[in-house]
Amino acid sequence: MKRNLSLSKKRQIARTVLQGLHGFQHRWPERTEVYQALDGIAKSDDAIFVMLRGDAGAGISSILEEFSLKFHDEVIVVKPRIYSSSLNMIGQVLHAIFPFSDFRTYKRVPKSLIECRQAARKIIIFDDLDIISNQNSMEEVIFDQLHQLARSLGWYKIIMSTRNKRLLQRYSKVIGITSMVIPVSGIIPAVNVKTVVQGFYDWCNQHYGTKAQPPCMSRFSKLDQDMPIDRIIDVCETLYCSELLKAHLDFNSKTITFTGTPLIYKFPDNFLDLRHEIEHNAFT
C-alpha cells in the first residue's frame, strides 16, 4: 500500500469500494454471451419480452447496469416501487421518464421529455421484479400492464429479471409477443476464482494508486469451491478495504489482519464482523 495516501483518502476509497462503485467487471464467458444477446436485442427493430433469470448473486444487475450505460439514449430504467393496495407499472415507467424534479414549474418543457423525444427510448428495464411479487395478486397486474406496454404503438423492448418461479410461470404463458428467456447462473468455477480476485486487486490498485496484495487462497476454504460472481466480488471488496484501513479481528485469541502469512481460517465464520468493522471505519 502506498504510504503517501492520507487516512482521509483511504476512507474515501473504501467508501467507494464498499458501495460497489469501483467499476470492476469480470467478463466470464457466460456474461459475454448474455451481453451479446442483449446487444442484439437492442439493435433489432422488433418489440420483444425478455426475462433474465438467475439466483441471487448471479450478476444480473451488473449486466443490466453495463447494458444501460451503453444504450443510455435508448433505455428507460424502472425501479419498481411497492404500493400497499395497487400497482401501476405504466405509471412507474412514466415516472422514470418524467422525474418529479422536472415538474417544479410548468413554464418550461421538462428536460426529460425533450431527451425522450430526441432519443426515442424504446427499451424498458425492470431489474428484480421479486420485490413486488409478494403483493396480493401482483403477478397478474404486472404482466397485464407489461403486456399493454409491449403491445402498444411504442413497440417497446421490455427486459426483466427475476428469481421468482411464479413470475417465470406467468411469463411463459404470455402470448402474442415475441419472448425470450435468458438464464444466468453467474457461477465462477473454482479454478477461475483466483483470476477474478487478482483482476479485482489489479483494477483497484491501478485506479486508486494503491499496492494492495490479494489474499493467499489457502486462507479461505470456501474459495476452493465454485462461487457466484457477486459473492466473490463481495469478498474482494471486504478484504481489499481491510488492508487499506488496516482493519483486523480477534479470532481464537489471534489477531487476523488478512495480510502476510497464510492462516487456516474459514472466512464465513467472522466475515460479516469484518465487513461491519470496515464499514464503521470508512463511514463513521
Can you lay out the helices and strands and say which pair or pack?
Elements lengths: L6 H12 L10 H15 L4 E6 L6 H11 L4 E4 L10 H9 L13 H9 L3 E4 L3 H4 L4 H14 L5 E6 L2 H8 L6 E5 L3 E2 L1 H19 L18 E2 H16 L4 E3 L2 E3 L14 H13 L1
Q: Could you explain how this protein is built, in words?
A:
The protein has helices spanning 7-18, 29-43, 60-70, 89-97, 111-119, 130-133, 138-151, 165-172, 190-208, 229-244, 271-283, and strands at 48-53, 75-78, 123-126, 157-162, 179-183, 187-188, 227-228, 249-251, 254-256. The model is unreliable at 101-110 and 260-266 (pLDDT under 50). With 284 residues, it is α/β, with parallel strands linked by helices. Strand 8 and strand 9 (254-256) form a beta hairpin. Helix 1 (7-18) runs antiparallel to helix 10 (229-244) and helix 9 (190-208) crosses helix 10 (229-244). The protein is elongated, with a radius of gyration of 22 Å. The chain has 2 domains: 7-20 and 188-283, no CATH class; 29-185, Rossmann fold. It has 11 helices and 9 strands.
